Amino acid sequence: MRVHPCGWDRLGMVNRIAQPVIDAAETRPLTAFYGALLGMREVHSESDGSVLIGHEQPPGIAFSRLDDYRPPRWPDPTCPPHMHFDIAVHDFTAAERLVLEHGGTPLPDLGGDHPVFADPSGHPFCLYASASAAEHRGRIEVVQIDCPDAAALARFYMGLLDVPGEQTSRDAWLIGRDDRLPRLGFRQVERYQPPRWKDRAFPQQIHLDIYVDDPTVAEQLGATPLPEGGGWDVYADPAGHPFCLGVEGY
Questions:
Q1: What gap in Å lies between CA 125 and CA 114, rounded to an integer?
Q2: Is the predicted pLDDT of residue 12 greater than 70, yes or no?
Q3: H or E segment at 181?
Q4: Is the CA virtual torsion 69, 24, 249, 138 positive or negative?
Q5: How many Å apart are CA 136 and CA 234, to the nearest integer?
Q6: Is residue 240 a contact partner of residue 195, using CB atoms and an 8 Å limit?
Q7: Secondary structure (3-state) at 53
Q8: CB count in 10 Å sphere of residue 219
Q9: 151: which strand partners?
């Protein structure tokens, strides 16, 4: 899916996340859910059911409709989420109520730092209170990415996005800048099972659209080209996660 950020002015900066893209059987329930939780409006839609929501400036979130969508199963390692959002809110109680009213469901506590919920299409996300979050809307602080080697994948995306990073625990890294959210987190998991491009038995479920100044940098850093991206150049990162690469302002 290629979604143009219609109505957004070009930011004039490069090497950034254009938007996360969430796969779903139906996109409208997700549009309403994340629109309410994050205070976003519809920016663009396409005839195939794809929708982009956002604020006055990117990044937003895109939703891609798939007839054969297969949701992740929490915490089933045979169908893992691969990526999930850490969402900060000003008022946790009000945000939790909104999540449940719009079709979200609580998921079992596996001993993590924050409560986990599933959106209406089954994608897990973490929700937590933050004094820095806007009073009337949440924000995606971090896109967490599962991988077999957190340090190696962090270095790849640090090079691709030209951002700093730090190791936050023995098996986790965090990269990015506070003024350019979302940041990316990398969690090293046992028995990691990568998504397989175009294989609906092992889908990616969520992927990133990324703008860069020089698209050749992806392969130089170790990305693998993938076929048929619907207008974007598609690659797999060194851990097998597909991502779409475009040039700013294209």
A1: 9
A2: no
A3: strand 180-188
A4: negative
A5: 36
A6: yes
A7: strand
A8: 12
A9: none
User: Residue with structure tokens 């629109």?
Assistant: 35
Q: What is the DSSP string of 202-223?
A: S--SEEEEEEES-TTHHHHTT-
Paired tokens of 97: 């109520």
Q: pLDDT tens digit string along 20-29?
A: 999 999 999 9
Give CA–CA dist 135/141, Å, rounded: 15
Q: What are phi and psi of 43, to 5 degrees?
A: -105, -35
Query: 222 has which bridge partners?
Result: none
Cβ 120 vs Cβ 126: under 8 Å: no
Structure tokens at 184: 């990316």
What's the token pair of residue 114? 């924050």
At residue 230 the predicted structure's pLDDT band, cuts being 50, 70 and 90, is low
User: Which class for 124: exposed (0-12), middle (13-18), buried (19 or more C-beta within 10 A)?
Assistant: buried
Element at 93 (helix H, strand E): helix 92-101
pTM: 0.90
pLDDT tens-digit readout, 50-108: 999 998 777 899 999 998 898 888 877 778 889 999 999 999 999 999 999 999 999 98
Average pLDDT, the chain: 89
- Cα torsion 205, 76, 92, 83 to 10°: value is -30
Condensed to tens digits (0 to 9), the pLDDT of residues 150-184 reads 999 999 999 999 999 999 999 999 999 988 889 99
Token pair for residue 249?
């302002």
HSE, side-chain direction, 13 A CA sphere, residue 247: 6
C-alpha 217/C-alpha 158 separation (Å) is 12
